[in-house]
Structure formats: C-alpha cells, structure tokens
Design goal:
Helix content: under 10%
Structural class: mainly beta
Strand order of the largest sheet: 7-1-2-3-4-5-6-10-9-11
Distance between the termini: 34 Å
Number of helices: 4
Largest sheet: 10 strands, mixed
Amino acid sequence: MIVVNVKDQDGGVIKEIIYANITDDTITVELQLPDSTLITQHIDFTKEVQIVQVLLLGEEERGQKPYQILCFVNHVQANEFISPDAMSKLRQKNPGTIRVAEDNKGVFNVTIDMKIKLKDSIYISQHIGSLCSEALDTTFTSKVDIDKWATVPGMYLGNLLQAVEYINYKAPNTNLKLCRDTGKVWSHCLCTMKVSIPWYPCALKFCKDHIGKKSTSVDSYRCGIQTCGKIMNFMYSVKHKQHCLTIE
C-alpha cells in the first residue's frame, strides 16, 4: 500500500491510497473528493475489468437518500496500468510531496446502456458482488464492453449476456434530455457522472546502461514509473430527475 498526495484538475490537493493484491491480480485506488464523494477504482487484471465505485452524499431536502452508491464497470486494457506485482514492489519516497501526473490522458466519454444483475455478476468479475453490493439497481456497463470481454480468454458471450439487462427508461426513438436541462422532477433524463483519477502508475520506466567501459552493448533496467491521470465521463439514463445526484 502507498499513500500519495496528488494535485487534482482544480489545483486542490487530495489523498490517494493505492493497494496491490498479487493473489487476486488486482489494484485498487481510493480517494475522497473535497465534497466528501468517495471514489474507488478497482482493476481486475485477469478479466480485464475496471470497477469504479462512487459514493455520493444526497440532499434529503431534495427527497434524496442520505447517500447513493453507483458502480460503473468497463473493459480495461491490462497495459494501461503497471502490474500488481510491480505495484507491490514500489517503495514510497518523500511521502509529503504533492504529486502531479506526468501524462494527462484526457477525458474518456462512456455511454452506459446496460445494468448488471449482481446475482450473475461473477460472470464478469468476482469483485463486483462485494464492491457493488449496495448498488443493486445502479451497477452499470455497456454492450460495447460486453463484446470486448467476450474476446478475453475464459469469458463467454452467453454468460456475459446473462449477467446484464438493457436500461429501458424511455420510449423507442425518444431522445432524452440531460437531467440538468430538464425542468420536471419526474421526467426520464440523462445523468452524467464525471470521475477523475488524477494520478496513478500507468507504466514502468526503463533506462539504458552500457555493459562495461569498452563494451558497445547496451542493457536496460527498470528505473522508475510513469504516472498518468484521466477523467471518465459516464452518461446513463435515470427514471426520474431526482435520481441524478450530480446535477449542479
């Protein structure tokens, strides 16, 4: 486990906690935003699955629950992060230093059109059931991700489709408005959730070294990590505007 202070996109400083589990072949990143929103990013390298759990505090005066948990489950390439084994070998230096990602990956727009049925979620990843146990109706994915997982060894399209169902909160051929542009509280609308991971180890750095003073051959060795940051913008439909807790 390492704990780092990182600068977010707004210039503020937040604390990240990063865990590596070699046995499960996973990495977990936890952070708390200034508004008390809790974000957990969990990477299952074996299944090429990313689970982003978001805990949002609600406003009871607006008829919302005290808090709501959302889970966004998407395909991820294993080479987007360093491996759990490499992560477990990192040693923290200068813990008080404020870190800034070297490579800003930009914004990834993700359109959600499916919900995951938690009772069958093991077909996607064994970790969904525990991380998203309080998100019975708010664990989301997309058909695009299902098709990508179907190409992963050991994962099968039939089983994957058993674990999901389409979100159908609108009449056919009806374009939904963004919730922030919808006046009626009980209207179906599109909710957006922006999740920022400002700092994470995304690759290993290798340096070159000449073998011997007179030798012309070059050897490479691991000499650090490359760090990245990214923003994920999830868009999903909700049955009623009041179910969208991210409206400013």
